Amino acid sequence: MGNKKQLKFRDNLDRTSYKPLRIDKRKDFLKQIKSLIQNSTRPAIVDTYQEQLEELFFLRNPLFRFGKNYKKGLNKFLKTGIKNQSSNFSGEWFFYPWLDSAVHFLPEKLYLELRTGRNKNLITKEEQEKFYSSLIGIAGLSVGSHVALTLAMTGGCKKIRLADPDIISGSNLNRIRTGLTSIGINKTIAVARQIYEINPYAEIQLFKQGLTDKNLKRFLGRGKTKLDLLIEETDHPYLKLKIRELARPLKIPVIMAADNGDGAIVDIERFDTNPKLPLLHGAVGSLTAENLKKLPPEKLPAVMAKIVGAEHASERMLKSVLEVGKSLYSWPQLGTAATLCGSLLTNLARKILLGQPIKTGRYNINPDLLFFKRGQRQNNKIKKLLKKLGV
After folding, report:
1. Could you state, in order of their start, the residue ranges of all structural domains in the chain?
2. Would you give per-residue pLDDT tens digits along the chain (391 residues)?
């Protein structure tokens, strides 16, 4: 066979936009739409406004769900919903650059009511409003991405700060809800896009360079900009200690989950109720972030093991950690555990933000212990593995 000429393709994927643009209805609506989509080959107009209104009507009037005598009430509701004008000019339109789509939404309050309608009465109206108005920060967007998206799905935390310096790689696809087209996109951008697709009214602040000594205080905030809750999922032991040292005097509660095989090790630190708590339940003793910098590299794995609760880790997880840099590129993480962590932390976040009495502590959530007779126990094998890690 003769040599075939190699085709050259130009990668032109949009990897930078992440915020939808609100279309101003006071100006020439059609002109704005045309201007926004002029560079698109196949622009999409997504207009399900009437369907959204209809579903909202049935959520408010559940007795009509199985009846037939609802048309008069529905028609009146629809007329009220579009205020006797063209439905095009009701609600809000947002253009998503990365989707090449203009999407029609209900006004913010009605949209929140619609998409959280099935939360009732597991979450009351008052609880939903408080949950939605909270401000949280998520540092680290592997496990943290699952928390962010589950928070958005459940109608929580309109205001959110996201921090992670990493881009999505192929090996992230086993635990992050995205596809191959997201490779090369900063994790904060990828997560922000998904949140905005759920809630275009969200207010998201990105820390695309990750957290550093220069921006940690800005990330945590102060006064009216202070976080109501911090979800800490970073990989670096220094940052794990430093951010807690700063969060504690600010009385910001911190929660964290470390994946453990198919399970999770969950940490809750209620600095909001007790600002004198030892960091990480005293797991690292009197070690400070500054002193950690002075430790030789060979001692860092032992510190990290103490931080994430390696004493609760499964045998396979401990064996795998010992193989990092030898037969393994990095420590293993499963999508099952990442998803579980996202669910657990979202549940805890909501309850802490709503003032429920969630206790400080470290908790081992192990499916093996629940579903199998021979679960992972603190046996001699595990003790030997912990000793090798220096724990």
Report:
1. 21-115, 125-277+333-371
2. 556 677 777 788 899 999 999 988 766 666 777 676 666 666 788 999 999 999 999 999 988 877 777 888 888 888 876 665 567 778 999 999 999 899 999 999 999 999 999 999 999 999 999 999 999 999 999 999 999 999 999 999 999 999 999 999 999 999 999 999 999 999 999 999 999 999 999 999 999 999 999 999 999 999 999 999 999 999 899 999 999 999 999 999 999 999 888 999 999 999 999 999 999 999 898 999 999 988 888 777 778 778 877 677 777 877 777 777 788 777 788 999 999 999 999 999 999 999 999 999 999 998 888 887 654 455 666 666 666 666 6
Q: What pairs with residue 294 in β-bridges?
A: none
Give the span between the Cα atoms of 189 and 196, in whole angstroms. 10
Q: Considering the entire predicted model, what is its pTM?
A: 0.90
| Residue whose structure tokens are 């555990």 | 337
**Cis link prior to 215 (omega < 30° from 0)?**
no
The domain defined by 125-277+333-371 carries CATH number 3.40.50.720? yes
